[in-house]
Design brief:
The structure holds two protein chains of two kinds. Chain A is mainly alpha-helical. Chain A is 76% helix and 0% strand. Classes of the chains: A mainly alpha, B alpha+beta.
Chain lengths: 300, 297
């Protein structure tokens, strides 16, 4: 039998072990650095925003007429858009999630189109569709409906157009994930389509519905591009919080930053509550024998 | 039958009530049929408690049903906390809350392990006996049908090939497929009339006497417990033992061509690679439909 290569002695093994240990340390270090840089990049601007002015100036900024008007407009328009989105979007998503029909994939693609469309383009599109000189502007005035442009209705429409696809997409996926058997059984137990939707499908999809509704709501609160082009920016009627940030940018940076901090706080609150809801939901039904309603968020 | 599929042809009726008629275009929706449907994994609603599941069907609380199925203590439990047998009882209670006119059980033991399966099946047999409700059960295992059913219908490639009591299916299977389903030894051979019966020369050698008169190529069926093992020197049919293992009903002896079930307490027990002789009473050697190919290959 031939001995292994003479140079492959103990010292050599030691050296190799050293190199591999060094390699592991280097990889660990690189990982830490990459994570630190990414976190810093994402967090520093927010930290700068919050610490830009003394706290009492910041809070004072929330209370100005200018800010409270924008808060009211934002809350009102987003609340209306949210309710419309849930009422019309949920049955729509259920139909798309549970039924197979020709042209279904086309509809699915159309639903996602506003997600990839620049919001300013969406605003333009709404304007040429529903503006006074737009495609349906004449129809609206013929029907005696006041034109929405520069009114609060236009803000609601802009938010719906830009934000509701986030809800629809998540809701369709959530309904799709429901075990068919459960809906079948509900039918044999005497439940009509309305009871199947409200008592079986919606509760089973609730995790996904809640999470995607929260994302859509957050997107709606931050809506800017479509709103400014379609609804304009009038204090007290169409000027939402994001429009107010832009409007005050030239006039008073302090004021703009106050409103910006408010928006960050609202978004963070929505994000956190969505994650918390999703977590509570999955932990209460996660051992479910069905493959239904897994949320798109997880909280570790 | 539950109204979940749209058949291409046929007619489904319960008494005088027509649920489906392909020719007349009648189709009653699932929620109007009153079928107590239990899918394979019972389809309990995971977001409702046990009593919530039952309430869904009857639109009111049914403590009496929970009581009857011995699940009152589980009323507030979620389905995912229940065992297989408990789930079955909840599903039955829920189906009954609907006041069904017929029960439909789709492979009720498919999702269970062997031990649970036997318990759940025996339990179901007792429950069904009490219910006195027409019940249709779909299964792949003849044993399940034998334990639970009064009548068994055998479907082969979508066609009903035989319907009868489990005993009838065992005694006189209509086809080799039915015989094989019941666990019988199905063997090819050539029959020669002899007296009022026939002698069947089996493929692979040996012969058996059947009480049925037949002529030409046939297939015969013999249940494992209808064979007797005898001295090979005194037998016209011999085979070699491949395995011997005890089972619930005695000892199961596998031979190269046959399976033989010996009762408990049989004094002589063969060993693997023993050569043994086989004997079966002529009335138990059932001649199935004559083979069409006309050769005894």
């Amino acid at each position: 039998m031939i001995a292994p290569a003479v140079w492959g002695g103990r010292a050599d093994d030691d050296a190799r072990a050293w190199v591999s240990a060094l390699g592991r340390v280097a990889v660990a270090l690189a990982t830490v650095v990459v994570i630190a840089v990414a976190v810093a990049f994402l967090l520093l601007p927010i930290a700068a925003l919050v610490t830009y002015q003394p706290l009492h100036d910041l809070i004072h900024g929330f209370g100005t007429k200018f800010a409270t008007d924008a808060i009211k407009v934002s809350l009102r328009t987003n609340a209306i858009a949210f309710v419309l989105m849930i009422i019309f979007g949920t049955p729509f998503a259920y139909a798309l999630g549970r039924r197979r029909f020709p042209g279904r994939s086309v509809v699915l693609t159309l639903v996602e189109l506003p997600l990839v469309m620049p919001p300013a383009v969406a605003g333009l599109a709404l304007l040429v569709a529903f503006g006074p000189l737009g495609l349906f502007g004449g129809t609206l005035s013929a029907l005696g409906i006041p034109n929405p442009v520069f009114r609060q209705a236009a803000v609601v429409m802009a938010i719906l157009f830009v934000a509701s696809p986030f809800y629809l997409r998540g809701a369709i996926a959530a309904f799709e994930a429901i075990d068919e058997t459960l809906l079948d059984v509900a039918g044999t137990l005497g439940a009509g389509s309305m009871r199947r939707l409200l008592q079986v499908a919606v509760p089973l999809a609730a995790g996904g519905l809640g999470a995607s509704a929260a994302v859509a709501f957050a997107r709606g609160i931050g809506e800017f591009g479509a709103t400014i082009l379609f609804a304009g920016s009038f204090q007290g009627t169409t000027e939402t919080l994001p429009l107010a940030v832009y409007g005050e940018f030239d006039a008073s940076l302090d004021q703009a930053i106050s409103i910006g901090v408010l928006l960050v706080a609202v978004s963070a609150a929505i994000l956190l509550s969505a994650k918390l809801l999703a977590h509570l939901w999955t932990s209460s039904t996660s051992t479910s024998p069905s493959r239904g309603g897994r949320s798109i968020f997880t909280l570790r | 039958m539950a109204g979940l599929e749209r058949p291409q042809a046929g007619r489904i009726a319960l008494g005088r009530e027509v649920w489906f008629d392909a020719q007349r275009g009648t189709r009653l929706s699932a929620e109007r049929r009153r079928v107590g449907y239990l899918p394979q994994d019972y389809g309990l609603f995971p977001h409702m408690t046990v009593s919530g599941n039952v309430r869904f069907a009857g639109r009111r609380d049914r403590p009496d049903l929970l009581e009857r199925f011995g699940i009152s203590h589980l009323a507030q439990a979620r389905p995912q906390q229940l065992s297989g047998g408990e789930r079955q009882r909840v599903a039955l209670a829920r189906a009954l809350a609907r006041e069904p006119r017929v029960l439909l059980l789709d492979e009720p033991f498919g999702a269970l392990d062997a031990i649970t399966r036997q318990q759940v099946r025996d339990e179901l047999a007792d429950l069904l006996a009490e219910l006195e409700l027409p019940t249709m059960l779909v299964t792949h295992a003849f044993e399940d049908a034998g334990v639970l059913a009064d009548h068994v219908g055998v479907l082969d490639e979508g066609r009903l090939v035989q319907i009868g009591t489990p005993t009838e299916l065992l005694r006189s299977p209509a086809s080799p497929m039915v015989a094989a389903l019941t666990g019988a030894n199905v063997i090819e051979g050539v029959a020669v009339p002899a007296g009022s019966g026939s002698t069947v020369r089996l493929k692979g050698g040996g012969e058996l006497v059947s009480a049925t008169r037949a002529d030409g190529p046939v297939e015969i069926a013999v249940q494992p417990w209808e064979f007797e093992l005898i001295d090979p020197r005194a037998s016209s049919l011999t085979d070699t033992v491949t395995s011997v293992r005890p089972d619930r009903r005695g000892v199961l002896v596998r031979l190269t061509r046959f399976t033989v079930q010996l009762p408990h307490g049989e004094s002589t027990r063969p060993e693997p690679s023993d050569t043994v002789g086989l004997r079966a009473a002529p009335e138990n050697v059932r001649v199935l439909a004559a083979r069409a190919d006309g050769s005894a290959s």
